[in-house]
Design brief:
The chain contains nine helices and 17 strands. By secondary structure, the chain is α/β, with parallel strands linked by helices. 43% of the residues are buried. Bound molecules: flavin-adenine dinucleotide.
């Protein structure tokens, strides 16, 4: 097959109720670097209802051209109608690379698209690059996260990958950037769409670490499940969520959804407070790009202090309640 017309990178922006997932902007930031190396356009695709502000935001965050499919029947994500729009845009825009977040939705959508195209899909990447032959070097942890495998799709276009949240950096919004918005019609009639989302029930117990601006994470130093209530109080006072080290998760003190690190979630909050966490490398890779890191540990030599912007040496059972009290009093 001749793929010579394929050029540029397409980011599929994921949104719910008009708010984009941070991973989409992080991918756009990383893709701008790749597009510069390829000397190729950076494109974004926004699908939903009343999502035009997101198309504008995509331009401000690095896209040269945004495909916008705005329709009432596309308000909520469903595989078939969304993948139809993506396939249509891929056919029209002919990107050499298509990227989206490795979220529940991104994994579903990317798989659905890849099965309709003569191409492969590298899922859950933590590094992306391009080589001199315009090949996407999509790297992801393999063999129980002991190795980083770089996977290439040599013969087909577009090259497709999903990438983890928190590993790349979003560009700040630049309102002076200009770009083109191309409107796309939904590729299905409303009566062809077999399912309708009536409502979203609250997801019980699931924590959204990926998009949290503040995370208060606890480790073995907590000594059991009960002290996580102290962390929750502090997280609530700061408008954040609770994270955990793998030791705390494996001990059954808290659910796996809360795990930060190599085999958990990679996070990039504005504030990360590590409580009773030593700072093992597998934990650090998941949180070291947080804007501000505060470590609370009774061991002054704990490695976590090497990445912390602020360190408090002392007993967490005294420090955490005192911090919460101070935050609430402000
Ligand atoms: P510890 O290393 O035991 O540290 C506990 C800390 O608490 C100590 O520094 C201690 O000084 C402090 N402390 C104790 N009592 C108090 C107190 N009262 N007040 C203040 N401080 C106190 N780990 C992850 O977190 N995430 C991962 O995704 C992950 N993936 C892994 C993948 C692989 C393949 C492997 C091999 C390991 C992985 N690990 C991961 C495990 C990692 O190597 C460490 O074992 C783990 O991070 C340590 O957890 P911790 O810091 O809670 O415990």
């Amino acid at each position: 097959m001749d793929f010579s017309a394929y050029r540029g990178i397409l980011i599929v922006v994921e949104q719910r109720a008009g708010t984009a997932k941070n991973v989409s902007w992080q991918l756009l930031g990383e893709a701008q670097r790749l597009a510069q190396k390829l000397d190729a356009p950076l494109m974004a695709l926004v699908i939903g209802h009343e999502v035009e502000p997101l198309a504008r935001e995509a331009i401000e965050r690095g896209a040269d051209r945004v495909y916008l499919c705005d329709a009432k029947e596309l308000k909520d994500y469903r595989t078939r109608p969304y993948s139809r729009v993506c396939l249509h845009v891929i056919e029209q825009a002919k990107p050499e690379i298509v990227l989206m977040g490795a979220t529940y939705t991104g994994r579903d959508l990317a798989g659905a698209i890849a099965t309709h195209l003569p191409t492969g899909l590298t899922a859950d990447c933590t590094q992306l690059d391009v080589d001199e032959n315009r090949l996407l070097l999509a790297s992801r942890p393999a063999f129980s996260e002991k190795m980083l495998a770089t996977i290439l799709c040599k013969q087909y276009k577009p090259q497709m990958a999903t990438a983890r949240a928190g590993v790349f950096m979003a560009l700040p919004r630049d309102p002076s950037r200009s770009g083109e918005i191309v409107r796309i019609s939904p590729q299905m009639n409303p009566d062809e769409i077999a399912t309708e989302v009536l409502d979203f029930l609250r997801e019980m117990g699931r924590v959204n670490l990926e998009d949290a601006e503040v995370i208060v994470a606890g480790g073995r130093g907590l000594g059991g499940p009960a002290p996580f209530a102290l962390l929750k109080d502090l997280a609530d006072a700061l408008g954040g969520v609770v994270g955990a080290s793998r030791v705390a998760v494996e001990a059954g003190w808290i659910d796996h959804d809360h795990q930060v690190g190599q085999t958990g979630t990679t996070v990039r909050p504005k504030l990360y407070i590590a409580v009773g966490i030593s700072g093992a490398v597998q934990h650090l890779v998941g949180m070291q790009h947080s804007d501000v890191i505060v470590a609370i540990n009774k061991d002054p030599d704990a490695p976590i202090f090497r990445v912390a912007n602020f360190g408090i040496v002392g007993d967490l059972f005294e420090i955490v309640p005192a911090l919460t009290k101070t935050v609430i009093a402000r």
